[in-house]
Design a protein that fits this description.
This protein is an all-alpha fold. The protein is 84% helix and 0% strand. The protein contains six helices and no strands.
């Protein structure tokens, strides 16, 4: 019972701190902003990598999906800039080692697969979904952080991006399952 009371009072203190705007100077808020810089860098670099993946795709469906994803990624960059503005922070990136590694892997996939094959498309979908899952995890956590700090508008912006990332992941799965994986296995 004492533990429950302590949790409730701790939550109340955290809620009142967030609502009073005192979170901006906390270590948690600084960590939050630092992670926003990380995903900002990631999105900017992804927007440069996606056209290469589009060009490497064999099927017109996958190429079109990468083109759409590039447009959406540019919107995610704009959304993150709004988030930084809402927080009174400068929009700037910090190298995201995770995304750098995922994009390096995508480049290796292009180099290691034969042009014009659906094996390459299957591999590109794998690479793209790894990116999507990283982004889903990041945006989901950042949205939760924003909620916990009382940044309601920021949380809503991050939720929009999270929803879009999930939709992109589903679209890639559908393309893979419609024909690419089956035909790649037959090559």
């Amino acid at each position: 019972m004492a533990t429950t009371t302590k949790s409730s009072s701790t939550k109340t203190v955290a809620d009142s701190t967030a609502k009073n705007g005192k979170m901006e100077n906390s270590e948690f808020h600084k960590f939050f902003v630092d992670e926003l810089k990380d995903i900002y860098w990631a999105e900017k670099h992804l927007s440069k990598a996606l056209p290469k993946m589009q060009k490497a795709a064999t099927s017109t469906e996958l190429a079109a999906a990468f083109e759409k994803h590039t447009e959406e990624t540019n919107k995610h960059i704009d959304t993150l800039e709004q988030v930084f503005e809402q927080l009174g922070e400068k929009a700037q990136g910090k190298k995201c080692d995770a995304m750098a590694g995922l994009l390096e892997e995508a480049n290796s996939i292009i180099a290691d697969t034969e042009k014009g094959t659906l094996i390459r498309d299957a591999a590109l979908i794998l690479a793209a979904q790894k990116v999507e899952h990283y982004e889903i995890a990041t945006y989901g956590t950042l949205r939760t952080f924003a909620v916990n700090m009382g940044h309601t508008e920021v949380a809503e912006l991050l939720q929009q991006t999270l929803d879009n990332e999930k939709e992109t992941d589903i679209a890639l799965t559908e393309i893979a399952e419609e024909f690419i994986n089956e035909q790649a296995a037959a090559e």
